[in-house]
Structures are given as C-alpha cells and as structure tokens.
Amino acid sequence: MNAITTDLASRETAALKSVGAAPEIAFAVGDSALGKVFVARSPIGICAIRFGSTTEEMQQDLAASFPDSRIVMNERRLRDDVAKVVQFIAAPHGQLDFDLDIRGTPFQRRVWDALRTIGFGRPLTYAQLARRVSGPKSLRAIAQACAENPIALAIPCHRVMGNSGSMAGYRWGIERKQALINKEVAT
Questions:
Q1: What is the pTM assigned to this prediction?
Q2: Residue 11 pLDDT exceeds 90
Q3: Catalytic choice (157, 161, 180, 181)
C-alpha cells in the first residue's frame, strides 16, 4: 500500500496536543552506496527519507521540519524501512512502496503526487512535470516544490531533469541524482 495521509496526521497531532502529548517521530540512519540515508516514520507512515553527512545534522533537520513532535532514534522499529531504502538504492526497481505521511501545502502535494506518476527509469523535464500538475504551472514553483520534497526516493524528485536535459538541481547533490538516474535507466 502506498497511501498518502495528511488529514489524519493533522487530526492526530491536534488530539495529542489536547492531552498534552507531542506526537512521536522515530528515525534511523543507514549506510548506502550514496552515503548516509535517514528514514523517519510518524504513527501514520514514512514522513522523511533524506541523505546527509551526519546523524546529528539530519536529526536537527527533521526536528526543524516537525517542531511540535518528539524526535526519537528507534533503529529497531525502522530496521525494515531502512533496509528497504538501502536495497532500493543498491538495486532500484519500480517504486518504493510505503505508507506515507506527507505534509505540505496543497500545491506541494499536487507536485509530489505528480512526481509519483513518473515511470521508473523514465526521467521527465520540469516542463513535462508541469503538464501533469493541476493548477498553476510555474516552472519555478514546481522546481521549488521538488526541492522541498521531504521523502526522497518514495517521491522520486530525482527523476526530474532540467528542460535542456541537464541534471539541474537536487536537494541532496547532483552526484546522488546522477547515480540514481544512471542505475534506474540501466535497469
């Protein structure tokens, strides 16, 4: 199942606040062919997959993204999730299949939904992605939504190329993007 839940997450956060408890987001870090990969899960689903240099840096980034949540390391709980992500990086195939807890503006969610329609190993340009997004189609706004994607790989923003076919930007580095695209296209 690959559900996107946002309203439920908002209701859960409000319910927990009403009883004085902060929602918990568990995270774990694994080593992959592309460096450290950070996976976080709320009670709803995966809410972050990120790359970084240090656990502390990625934990601080997550805490900034979820200021009303308790951020806790829980390698045991996320062992299978991290293994699935690391395996996807090593030998990508299809889509990463997780329940997702996506939090963003309505426009960001439309862009992220459109990203999830990009076929494996079939990169698109920003202009092609814009045609898949309902509503305003500003290439700059679409590129910004891609850059703010909180769930790398499961929301495959790495599959979007510059309109000239160039690698363009990638939140976690052009080298990672190039490696991901190369592996997918080769598969």
A1: 0.84
A2: no
A3: 157
